[in-house]
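User: quick one, fold this
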Amino acid sequence: MLEIKNLTKKYSGKTALENVSLSFPKGEIVGLFGENGAGKTTLMKSILGFIKYEGEITLDGEKITNKNISKISFATSEHSFFPDLNAKGHKEFYKSHFSSFSEKRFDALMEFFSLDKNKKIRSFSTGQKNQFEVILALSQGAEYILMDEPFAGNDIFNREDFYKVLSGILDENETVILSTHLIEEVSDFIGRAILIHGGNIIGDKNTLELDDEGSNLVEYIKATYNYHEDRVSKAIDILSGREE
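Assistant:
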């Protein structure tokens, strides 16, 4: 169980997260949603210990340190690999550092994305680099896999097919926490939606509950954020001079 209690983070006096408390049991696929600057990335970086914060974050009842950090992996479009090393070299590096590294999963995902194991990662396109980052995160052998906008630069077919593959390869002890703006694309993939606004959790819903209520993820998010359907037409009227 990954638990967050009373997490608060401020940057130069400005609050990025305020008294956030969440728990993530094993075996969940969680969507983390919110506008730019809502606090999604700050939440993930706090879990990983990349930044200092107030509050408490524990993994199976213990603080996250060098002893258990390998149970968490991270995929981000900021990239964390060695650009002058090829994919085969990364595999050997990960095998030597993570005892639970899955060579079978690594090779299968490299083939799925049609990535060349012998090319330096520096020569990959932006989309390919993001794919490779995801491959490393999924192959590490972590129990909690954090993904922060991992599919930038990828076409819709690659993304949709990958969601299907991911659903098929995860085991019951693996949890994915996925931060994305692609709400409709992941609506059939995630099992739980967490909504962040202004550093606060404003929604936390199991998608099966939405089905029972006759609703869906997009409708739930719009209602929670108090989205006004007429905002586009009003803006057009103002900009076109039809409204004075």
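User: anything notable?
Assistant: Residues 187 and 217 are 6 Å apart (CA to CA).
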